[in-house]
Design a protein that fits this description.
Number of helices: 6
Radius of gyration: 20 Å
Strand order of the largest sheet: 1-2
Helix content: 40-55%
Strand content: under 5%
Low-confidence stretches: 9-15
Mean pLDDT: 81
Length: 176
């Protein structure tokens, strides 16, 4: 494997047999190893996928506060079915990518990074679930809820942004 640096970025092609390893800062927990540069117009595809994803959220009632409350009160299988289907789809997709060594649309090797267990993730997950149960929304459907006319969710969005800012300020003092 070759290590990518600023000096050799132009010299390395991604068509080689061995994947290119991109050096990331230690604090980077979700690195993006894409080497190909994209211009601003290529972001249109992400916008279209995001809009379609939002439509699916609305039609599947995933953004419904009522459905989310049903889930947390253990009254309905609907949301567990949706989440379970997403987890199974993700597992199968990652297995297929690894098994057949699939490449990205730009022909780059897909790299999966090892994840270490941190108690901070458990604490963060509990806080996330508590916020989800109290507000009836997680970050994914917030924009779909606002787009559907539930303007009170703007308060939830501002709270999520504030929470992210507070986390950034306290990050060094929290368990990771």
């Amino acid at each position: 494997m070759k290590t990518l640096t600023k000096e050799n970025i132009e010299l390395i092609t991604t068509t080689e047999e061995q994947p290119v390893v991109v050096q990331h800062p230690l604090e980077c927990e979700a690195p993006n190893d894409q080497l190909a540069r994209e211009n601003w117009t290529s972001n249109l595809k992400y916008t279209v996928v995001g809009i379609l994803f939002g439509i699916v959220f609305v039609k599947a009632e995933i953004i419904s506060w009522y459905r989310i409350q049903e889930m947390f009160r253990l009254h309905s299988f609907h949301m567990y079915g949706v989440i379970g289907t997403a987890v199974i789809t993700g597992i199968i997709s990652v297995w297929i990518i690894k098994r057949f060594n699939l490449k990205t649309l730009q022909g780059e090797t897909v790299v999966f990074h090892k994840k270490e267990f941190h108690w901070g993730n458990v604490i963060g997950g509990l806080l996330f679930g508590l916020g989800w149960a109290l507000t009836g929304a997680c970050p994914g459907p917030l924009f779909a809820q606002i787009g559907s006319g539930f303007l009170a969710v703007i308060i939830t969005l501002l709270s999520a942004i504030t929470g992210t800012w507070v986390y950034g300020r306290l990050r060094e003092k929290l368990p990771h």
